[in-house]
Amino acid sequence: MNKALLVFRLKMSLAIIAILLLGAALTYGVMLWITNGSISGIALVTGLVLMAFFLTLFQWLIGPFLINAMYRAHEIKPDDPTYGWVYDLVADVARANGFKSAPRVYVADVPFPNAFAYGSPIAGKRVAITLPLLKILKPGELKAVLGHEIGHLRHRDVEVLMAIGLLPTVIYWLGWSLWWGGWWGGWSEGRNNNGGLLLLIGLVLLAVSFLFQLFVLYINRLREAYADINGALTVENGAHNLQRALAKITLYTDPSVVRKTTNGTLRMLFFAPPVNVNVEYIERNVDDLIEYWRHYKPSVWEELLMSHPHPARRIQLLDSLAESS
């Protein structure tokens, strides 16, 4: 196994273990301290965990059907006269990743370029590609993107992130419960010390839940980088084609990024309104944008609230994989 990949996996595993242990210790520790070791504190936290788990499980089970409705996605089959070739690409990448059968393939009728993997035990594994992405990417580039998305399925990222996401949810609910209990108890008992203490602890836990959400975003960035690695290593010329795909998506979403890079700054616009960008414009600027990202050093603050690594980090990671292969 590649040494850099082994180090990356170890870093990711330690981060996940650390956040799970720290979150569990914090929630149970706070309740045991407040209730002086009473069983009621453990019961409250356990109840919140179970409630968060079942709500998250319900969302996971029905999520794929909601996504299909929101994205106006329709399933394509191998014999589809228009998109059968897309199904074949997905099947090829799935086989390269050790899947016995291809995930279900969908084309989404939305006005922005994207691809994503999703699914649940009742919906099965799915991959969706939007129409603009099919318009701007060449088959090799699309195949590299599919290597990234199928990497999410291979690594069970939906399940991993769902489990980790329970922590900030439970901490938030616990903080809100204590804040509300302290506020109400303070009024009903003349704002005694106990009510004020619960109010303060609740506010602190609400703030801590936000910090844990930042940790979850960090884990998500690691999983996205891991999926990039998967796309680079399981698809022929995957690193190069994934770089081009990332730059093309950016140019489609925010064509003025070329002017911004020329001025020495880079501002990524996520969820920006789609613009009418022709393929020639994208092809003309894609290499310059990749070259800019190769030398750009994003700060910690630029990535802090991002669910994906900064594009510059992704380009540089893919460069290192291409050099080591």
UniProtKB/TrEMBL annotation:
<dbReference type="GO" id="GO:0004222">
    <property type="term" value="F:metalloendopeptidase activity"/>
</dbReference>
<feature type="binding site">
    <location>
        <position position="224"/>
    </location>
    <ligand>
        <name>Zn(2+)</name>
    </ligand>
</feature>
<protein>
    <recommendedName>
        <fullName>Protease HtpX homolog</fullName>
        <ecNumber>3.4.24.-</ecNumber>
    </recommendedName>
</protein>
<feature type="binding site">
    <location>
        <position position="148"/>
    </location>
    <ligand>
        <name>Zn(2+)</name>
    </ligand>
</feature>
<dbReference type="GO" id="GO:0008270">
    <property type="term" value="F:zinc ion binding"/>
</dbReference>
<keyword id="KW-1003">Cell membrane</keyword>
<feature type="transmembrane region" description="Helical">
    <location>
        <begin position="12"/>
        <end position="34"/>
    </location>
</feature>
<dbReference type="InterPro" id="IPR022919">
    <property type="entry name" value="Pept_M48_protease_HtpX"/>
</dbReference>
<keyword id="KW-1133">Transmembrane helix</keyword>
<keyword id="KW-0812">Transmembrane</keyword>
<feature type="domain" description="Peptidase M48">
    <location>
        <begin position="84"/>
        <end position="320"/>
    </location>
</feature>
<comment type="similarity">
    <text>Belongs to the peptidase M48B family.</text>
</comment>
<dbReference type="GO" id="GO:0005886">
    <property type="term" value="C:plasma membrane"/>
</dbReference>
<keyword id="KW-0378">Hydrolase</keyword>
<feature type="transmembrane region" description="Helical">
    <location>
        <begin position="199"/>
        <end position="219"/>
    </location>
</feature>
<keyword id="KW-0862">Zinc</keyword>
<feature type="transmembrane region" description="Helical">
    <location>
        <begin position="160"/>
        <end position="179"/>
    </location>
</feature>
<dbReference type="InterPro" id="IPR050083">
    <property type="entry name" value="HtpX_protease"/>
</dbReference>
<dbReference type="Pfam" id="PF01435">
    <property type="entry name" value="Peptidase_M48"/>
</dbReference>
<dbReference type="InterPro" id="IPR001915">
    <property type="entry name" value="Peptidase_M48"/>
</dbReference>
<feature type="transmembrane region" description="Helical">
    <location>
        <begin position="40"/>
        <end position="62"/>
    </location>
</feature>
<keyword id="KW-0645">Protease</keyword>
<keyword id="KW-0479">Metal-binding</keyword>
<dbReference type="GO" id="GO:0006508">
    <property type="term" value="P:proteolysis"/>
</dbReference>
<feature type="active site">
    <location>
        <position position="149"/>
    </location>
</feature>
<keyword id="KW-0472">Membrane</keyword>
<feature type="binding site">
    <location>
        <position position="152"/>
    </location>
    <ligand>
        <name>Zn(2+)</name>
    </ligand>
</feature>
<keyword id="KW-0482">Metalloprotease</keyword>
